[in-house]
Amino acid sequence: MNSLGEALRRAGSDIIERIFASLPSLLGAMLLLVAGWLIARVLRALTVRAVLLVETLTSRIGKPSPGEPVRMRRASIVIGEIVFWAAMLIFVTAATHVLELTSFTDWLARLVGYLPTLAAGVLIVVAGYVVSRFLADLVLAASPRMDSAQRALLAKVVQVTILTGAILVGADQIGIRITFLAIFVAAIGGVVAGGVALAVGLGARDYIANLIGAHYLRQAFAVGQTIRTGGHQGRILEITATSVVLETAEGRVTLPGRVYNDQPIVVLGGANRG
Question: Quick check: pTM over 0.70?
């Protein structure tokens, strides 16, 4: 009986000694977790603000869709949560190292070592989203002669194609092998790029024609001359970079510069050129 009591006392004493011996490690791990929690909250708040700042800057460049601010707010919250738990993972790894949980620490260390690669992939996708929005707005602005529905469709195709390419590049950065899909998207992207170039060319054609025509109007005619062209007759008041302004009996008329190439111009009188 005495030997049993002695064994129980020794076991209890060993347990108490082990608890006291591990108290510094436990306290250190708890302090690391508390510090990590605070730092992770700060990083989450900064991330949300950074994402919303990017949204504000891009909305100043282009015209945002009606639901875009709400979507970006949700996206900022999701990205903020990802940053929060990534930071917590780092501090949990440090805490397990302090507690000398070797197997668990090694597994978490490998996971933490993968975080920079994962972050690079996410940044590529975010940058692709920003660029896709900018180019979509550029397509909308550069093709005024197209139907509004066609412009919107072309802009959406451009945005989706660029964003898909960014997702593929980000996935490759993370380590996901998608070679066949990347080749397919690259082919589609080439077709879309040709369509965008065609749309921009059609939108700029009239502007260039007016620019060239106005240049030759300035060489051939002078302010003060009276001319008749395109059903209008009047005195030249001004020749701008892309147009000519006439003072007619009905009032001021602005004709596009391309009238120099498209219509015959009759000089009726006034100042001589030169």
Answer: no
